Amino acid sequence: MTSSMEVGVAGVGLFMPDFPTVADWHARRRSNEPQLPTGSRLDRRARGRSSVLTKALAEAYFEAADAAGVELGEGSAVFGSALGEVGTMLGLLNQMWREREEPSPMAFALSVHNAASGVVSIATKNRGFTTSLGADHDTPAMALMEAIGLIAERGEPVVVVCGEEPTPTALVPDDEAWELAAMAVVLAPLRDDERGSDVRLRGPFKGAPTLAGPELPPMVARNPQVGLLDLICAIEAGKSGILALDRGRGAGWCMEVLFAHG
């Protein structure tokens, strides 16, 4: 690894039905009833047409960006999801092939993989670089890799937000099901005078993990994006080490977490 692979962490964000914010997760303050994301920071029109996944990604995105003090109209962002807007897509396919109806152009636009990044980018009037990607259980690793490349090229913070909507039962068996979750991490360039402070990340790379993710309910642990939650938990724990980003279901990409205290 070289120093160009090392970045800082400026903020984190989270949305899960039982823990709708990072503060709730840190305190293990479970909601009395599972929550649905509201997308409250989106404009009314975008909020009305957005899926539950887009709203969840937006909630995590805004929480992390606020924590990092990112200028919403200018920053870069990487959105990651293994299946994306699969619920909307399956609905359109049923409409086309079973009901023999023409789908609306708007419904089609919101079924594409970059729907959430487009909605959030438009809502924030973002003039920066925004992209979307999917790599199954390696999505967190690839999203982080993309963000680090953007930092190397542009020298500015990048919001990495990954999430998955509840399992589409038509595609995934019950014993592999997961629940809605979205997580975000803001990566920032390190200046020479900052290299010994706060939390830093190095990677992604193939390696031998020395840190383990926390014990989680199966419906959370099976989510393809759980690696980003594990990274947030490692940052919360304040321990340096190498963390796997895929819980053994991907290609073995890891991230090294570094703290000034060791």
Task: Describe this structure in a few short sentences.
The protein has 262 residues and is α+β, with helices and mostly antiparallel strands. The chain is 33% helix and 20% strand.
How would you describe this protein?
By secondary structure, the chain is α+β, with helices and mostly antiparallel strands. It has one domain (3-198): Peroxisomal Thiolase, Chain A, domain 1. It is 33% helix and 20% strand. It has nine helices and eight strands. It has helices spanning 22-26, 44-49, 52-68, 86-97, 105-109, 115-123, 139-154, 218-221, 226-237, and strands at 6-15, 76-80, 130-133, 158-164, 181-188, 199-206, 241-244, 253-259. An eight-stranded mixed β-sheet has the order 3-2-4-5-1-6-8-7, with helices on both faces. β7 and β8 (253-259) form a beta hairpin. The two termini are 18 Å apart. The mean pLDDT is 88.
Q: Key features?
A:
eight-stranded mixed β-sheet, 33% helix, single chain, 8 strands, alpha+beta, Peroxisomal Thiolase, Chain A, domain 1
- Across the major sheet, the strand order is 3-2-4-5-1-6-8-7
Biggest sheet features: 8 strands, mixed
Computed Rg: 18 Å
Number of helices: 9
Q: How many structural units, i.e. domains?
A: 1
Q: How far is it from the N-terminal to the C-terminal residue, by CA?
A: 18 Å
Strand content: 15-25%
General form: globular
Q: What do we call the CATH homologous superfamily?
A: Thiolase/Chalcone synthase
Helix content: 25-40%
- Level-1 CATH class name: Alpha Beta
- N-to-C SSE string, H for helix and E for strand: EHHHEHHHEHEEEHHEE
Number of strands: 8
CATH topology: Peroxisomal Thiolase, Chain A, domain 1
Mean pLDDT: 88
